[in-house]
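Quick one: structure for this chain?
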Amino acid sequence: MPVYVMGSDSSQNPLSLGSVESGLSFHWSLSKAGVLEIKPRHAQVGVSVSPSHSFSVLVRARAPGRTSLKVCVQLQQIDTSNTSLSDHLTDEIQILVFEEMQLTAGSSESILMSPLSQYLLRSNKDSVCPVHYTFSRCVSGAGLVTIDNEGVLKTGPDTGLAVLEVYAMDICGINQTLLISVEVSTAWFVRILTVSSVNSDSDRALPAFPLGWSIRIRALYYDNMGRQFQSHNIQTLVTANRDDLVQLIVDKDSRSFLVQTASPGLTVLRVQGDTTNPFLSDYTPLFVMPAIPEPTGCLRSGDVICFSSPITDQQGQRGRWDVSSSEILQMNSETGVAFAKNSGTVVVYYRLEGGQQTFKEVTVEPASIPVFIPPADRLLINWPEASEYTVRVDLNTSAANTAQCSLDQWEVIEKKLHPEAELLCSLHFGAPYPEMRILQAIFNATPFYNSATAQYSCRISVQPQSDSILHLLSTRSLSIHLSACLRTQLAPAALLSLPQTPHSFQSSLQLPYVPAFHCPVTKIKLSSQQPEAEITVFGTTDMLSTLRSIQPYISWIRYRLLQAFPCTQTFLHKSTLYW
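Got it. Here's what it folds into:
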C-alpha cells in the first residue's frame, strides 16, 4: 500500500511538499525488519528516486506481525542564525500485518465431494483463533451437507450445492469470513497421477523409470466438468499385467499406491474406481530400465570399472554407491569406481538422499592365468645403474571399462584405489644359498598398474652393490624366475609361503638374465714410456663375447679368453691396450 507525508493540515499535502525543490529530504525506516518492506516508487521499472523526492513510498507486507514505520524529514540547508528552528522533523505510525484466512488444502472457493463421503476442513486460523462454521440459509440445499465443530464435512446420498460460511475473529480484532461452495456430485472419470519424480543431470527426460525406483501414484477423480474431487468414498483398485516386474503396495486411504520396480520391462497399470463401471478406469505404461549402464567390456577379476548414472536428486546432487558384497567388488562410494577382486555375481546400488535407489546386477568372471610379456630388446642385468626391467603381466583385463571414466574417477583410481596392490610379483633364484641371499637383496620386483591401458606389469629394479658382490656375481650363470598373480588367485596357505615357493603361483617366467661383467681395475695410466697395459675383465662367455671398447684413443691389440676356474665356469678376459 502507499504511504506519503502530509503537513499539519490537509492543505499541506504532497502537492505542496513536492514544490519545495531541494529543500527537504525524506528518510524512511522500520522498527522491526521482516514484517514490512519499504519499496521506492518506480522501482519496478528501474527508476531510482532520490531522498529529496521520497515523500511517497510503498510498503509491502512480508509476514504477520506489528512494526513501526518512521519517517525523518531533514532540512538540507539550515539557517544557523535561527537557533529555534529544528533541523529535522519525525513521525511514525504503527502497522499491523495479519494473515489472510485460507484453507490449508484445496481451494478456498469451492469443494467438490462425492455422495456419502467426508472431508476435514482445515484453515490457517484453526490454531490461532476460534473458527465457526455454518451454512447460508439463503442457498437451497440445506441438509445436503453437514459440518461439526471440528470442521468435518459429511455428505449424504443426494447431489446438489450448498454454501458454507467460515467465520474467524483474529486476536487483532479483525473478522474474516470465507464463503465456500460445497458441491456434491458423482465421479465421471479417474486419472493416474505419478507423484515420484526422476531428475537427471541433463535437460533430456529419461526414457524409462530406473530399475529399483519406488514410484508413488495417486488416483484422482473428476466430475463431468473436469473438476477434481477433494473427497470421495470410492474404493480404488490397482492392478498390473506383469506382477513379476513390479510390486504394488496400497496405502491406508486406498487413494495412493507405491509401485516398487523389481525387473526391467514394460508393465501396464490399471486403476479402477467402480467394478460395475468399466469406463471409470485409467491405464498407464510403466517402462523400467537399468539406470546404471552395462559394463562396456567383459568384467573379470583384476579389472577396474567406472560406474555412472545420470540420476540426481531434486537439488541436482549425486548419490552414493554401494555393493552387496565387498569381497567381489571394492567400491568407492563417492565416485562409483570399483575394482573386481573375486569372481561372482554382485548387485551395485546407487542411492540418493531421501531413500530412492536404483541397482544393477553385475557378474565378474574368474581371473585369467597370467601371461608374461618381457621386453624383446632387453636383458635383465645386475648393473646398479641399469634402468628398470618391466615385464607386462597380461590378465586379460579390458581398458574399455575405464574408457568413460570422469576426471574425478581417474583421480580416485590413481590416488585411492591402487589396483597394483592386488598384484603379487615375486622373484625366485636358481643359485646356491649364499648367492640366493645376495640376489634377494639386490633385485626388487614391484607391481604396477597402467590406468590408461588397464595393464599390469612387474618392474624389476636393481639395488646398489659393493665391488665385491659385483665381482662375485659377474662369473655366476644363475637363473631368475618371475612369478605373478592376483592375491585372490592364491590359497590362504600359499600367501604365507611367499616368496620362497614359485610353484604356488599359477604362472612363472624364466627371465633372460646376464650378470654384469666386472673389472677390478678402475684406472690405468698410459704414456710413451709405458704404452701398454693389461686389464682383466671377469664375466660369463655370453657377456665377454660382446665386449667392446668405446674409447677412440685406445685400441684392443689382442685379447685372450681364458677359462680360469673350470669347476665354477668362471671366465676372464685378458686384453692388452696400447696408446
